[in-house]
Structures are given as C-alpha cells and as structure tokens.
Amino acid sequence: MNDYLFKRVLTCVFIADTHCMNVSAGPTQKMNLFQSVTSALDNTLAGDPTAVIFGEDVAFGGVFRCTVGLRDKYGKDRVFNTPLCEQGIVGFGIGAAAAGATAIAEIQFADYIYPAFDQIVNEAAKYRYRSGNMFDCGKLTIRAPWGCVGHGSIYHSQCPEAFFTHCPGIKIVVPRGPVQAKGLLLSCIADQNPCIFFEPKILYRAAVEQVPTEAYQIPLSQAEVLQEGSDLTLVAWGTQVHVLKEVAAMAQEKLGVSCELIDLRTILPWDTETVCKSVVKTGRLLISHEAPVTGGFAAEISSTVQEECFLNLEAPISRVCGYDTPFPHIFEPFYIPDKWKCFEAVKRMINY
Fold first, then answer.
1. pLDDT single digits (tens) 70-127
2. Is 86 one of the catalytic residues?
3. Which of 19, 123, 156, 224 is catalytic?
4. How far apart are CA 65 and CA 52, in angstroms?
5. Is residue 156 flagged as an active site residue?
6. 52, 97, 197 from 237: Cα distances, Å
7. Could you report the per-residue pLDDT of 21-45, keeping only the tens digit for each?
8. Among 19, 308, 310, 341, which residue's Cβ finds the most Cβ atoms within 10 Å?
9. Integer Cα distance of 26 and 210 in angstroms
10. Nearest alpha carbon to residue 69 among 48, 44, 89, 42
C-alpha cells in the first residue's frame, strides 16, 4: 500500500467510534467492517430459516472473508457457491426472493455488477410494478465490494452507484464503518424492496469499532450529520466521508471555517431534507465522491439543492470527484478526490 493510501486508511480509523454510540443493542465486540458484515449475515441466517447467501466463492468465505464460517455453521444448502455469472446470480436471487426466500446475493466486485445490470434494472426493480403488486422480489439484497483500494485499477476500483440511481424500485446504500455497515445491511435485508449494498473495500480491515453482536437496524434514507457547522456543508458517503472529516478539521484550523459534515448513507432514495436544511444554514455545499464527475450522483444532489435552496446559496455548489477516465493504476493518487483537492475547493467557495 502506497503512502497516499496508507494516510487515507489512517484517517478512516481515526474517526471511527465517535458517532456510533446511539446504537444500543446489548453486548458489543470489536470488529472491523468485514467482520461486522459477517455478524449481520450470521444474525440473519440464525433468525430467518428462509435466508440464503450465494455468490462466487462465498462458501469458503469470499475474497474479502465476509462469509467465513457461515457454510459450516448453517449448511451448504443455505450458503453456497454459484457459477461465475453475475447475471445468473442476480436472476437466481430474484426468483428465490419471489418464491419467499430472503435472498442475499454477493457480486464479488462492484465492477462486475454490469453483466447483471439488465436483471437488476429491468427485472428486480420493476417486478412489483409490472405485476400490480401481486408479486415482488423485495427480499433480495445484493452485496458488492466497492471503491478504490490502492491497486485495483480499471476493474477493481469502480463506484457504480450512479448507474442505478436512475432506476426507481431499488434502494442503494453505502456505509462508512463497521457499526453502520451491520445496521444498514440488516435494514436492507429486512426492507421490502430490492437493495444494493456497496461495501467500501478499503475499509474492510481499516475501520474498527465496538459493534453490537445482536441484530439491530439503522433506518434507510436518513442521512447523518456527523459534525455541525455554520459556514459550509460537506456531503459524502462511504470512504469519502473520512476524507471530508479531515478536510473539515483543516478548514477550521487553517481558515477558521466551520464545516457541517453529512454522511448520506442511502444514495437512493436519498435524504433531501437533511441536506437542504444544512445548506439553508451554511449557504455553501461541497459534494465529493470517487466516481467520475460527469453523471455522478453529486450532480443529482447539486441540481436538487440548486432548485430548493437557490436564494440561500452564497457560492456555486462544488463537486470534487474522480475524473472522466477509466480508473488508473499507478496514477490513482492523482485520480482520487483527496483532502487537498477538497480543501482547495473549500477555499474557492469561501472566497467567492
């Protein structure tokens, strides 16, 4: 791991425990993010006899070890491998969910979700609508490792959430840490709509928190204000939340600028009320994500805020995102919207 990404990981660890104390579900255990995902899946399999987990290599634990031990504990009929066919994995999940099972499908990397795009967009998302609510596949949850990891390059570092936000009928969620991951994943599994749960892969082992061992849920479509401020609103999700946390500290220390930091958490349907309320207060908005800037979800947030808060804005809304190129390998540090790019955007907005 290069020095740039090591610093990103340190930042992620640094802000871990501070905003999780509102979750109360009995005894806790120190877990990193992939262990918290395993715990959520374990709780689900234990409490729901219809629950099944399937995907490429999940039987032995998966590439990132999120399903370790679950096949031995619950049997090969409930945790099992599939062929290397993402379209088939999601298609099977739709059928299983429609038949009444709680179907949890794993796509090994978010970059490989595209072969399943038709099944997700034309089948899963529309299943309830096309049958007039006679049938649905709302018990389907699709998990996928997501985002940059330092050496993933073109096919292992993408953030494809915006492709699916143009599609009514599904929910899209990205957690920032272990406590959030477990609670939000359990909410996705319990939700009566198909959900896509993107897991920031660089955080799998980096972020560590005290996570409740029993099941608990964190509401979907509710953004969380991690830090209150008066001068500028920062919005992100997943790994980028940690980057903006550091930017907020830099802005306070070097510029005397008070930033309000919001973790969007659910990308679709997103919490417009929390974001707009913050922008009305601060008058400025910066949105950051790793995905390319053109057509990224920051554009949707920007458009909505411009429509709802136009008279409150003190500066143009700023988007600090990835470039409109395939994800690079050795040039990844130049591609990622790091704290320095975001801090420069803050300075421009304050001086506008």
1. 999 999 999 999 999 999 999 999 999 999 999 999 999 999 999 999 999 999 999 9
2. yes
3. 156
4. 17
5. yes
6. 28, 28, 12
7. 456 668 999 999 999 999 999 999 9
8. 19
9. 11
10. 42
